[in-house]
# Entry
Amino acid sequence: MKSYELVSKTVRGENSDRTPVYGWLEANLKDEIAEVFGSVENFEDKYEFDMAHIFGCPPPFKMDVIENLKKQGIEITPEVLLDIPLNDVNSMEKYDGIISSLKHHRIDREKFCYMQTPGIFECLNEPFGIENHLMYMALYPNELKDVYRRQAEWNIAFSENVIELKIDDIHISDDWGAQNSMMFSYDMWKELIYPSHKYMAESIKKKGVFLSLHSDGNIAAALDGIVDIGYDIVHPWQETAGMTYDTYLKRYSDKFAILGGVCIQSTLGFGDYKNLESEITRVFNTLKGERWICCTTHFVQEHCSIEELVFAFDLIKTLR
# Structure
């Protein structure tokens, strides 16, 4: 079975003969992996990775304009940001890297490809700063609704462009979670953030592709809303933030798939091979055969040795 077929069947909840595998490796360990394996792609081939995480979205914001205003002492409030046009999402010369990646991973290697796409909250932390952004949610909710709607429309246009390029999944990255709860109340999330995600989902899913969400931390309060929005995959379902697999299996396994299971906060990268083996085995015993794609919960951190990384994926390969 081709990798994109395996992942698609798993996301849809259809039984498959093996667990799909992926890992977020390149950000911190590219050079170290290349020294041993020649390249990150060689490592992915050895361990038969089924997915490719495609990056290359053109930047939405004119950050040079924004930084110049900040140097003049102008605070980038929602009203100020609305007066700064977004970059042209249809400048197709900016998509050359995405086209090249899709040819390599999807056409030539038949992997399931998911496209990194801006969210609503996370991406706006760049022009605002996260502390200011959280404050604006309380001070300027009506103005932020306009900012969020404009961002959603830009995101939809970007998604439609990459869907034309034959992407399998639009992956929206929008961190909402802290270690024990969301960074804002559920009511604030439902009023401000949910509408734009619902708007994006309705537009994107009409195109017949999968839709996935990345949010770190504890997002338990928003899970029913995530179901209503229509997400097919949630990454990472963070156990260390109180998101138990028991809750997933009892309440949500018939509604969406999860991508994750190899925790970089408590399991991989700490030199404790006994715990590493025990935890990976436990997760496989819990989730194998469910709507689960085995993956790291975030980028593997630089303190993880290559020996430990190899040990983990050797084990995953035998358990899958």
Summary: The radius of gyration is 20 Å. The longest strand covers residues 112-118. The chain has 14 helices and seven strands.
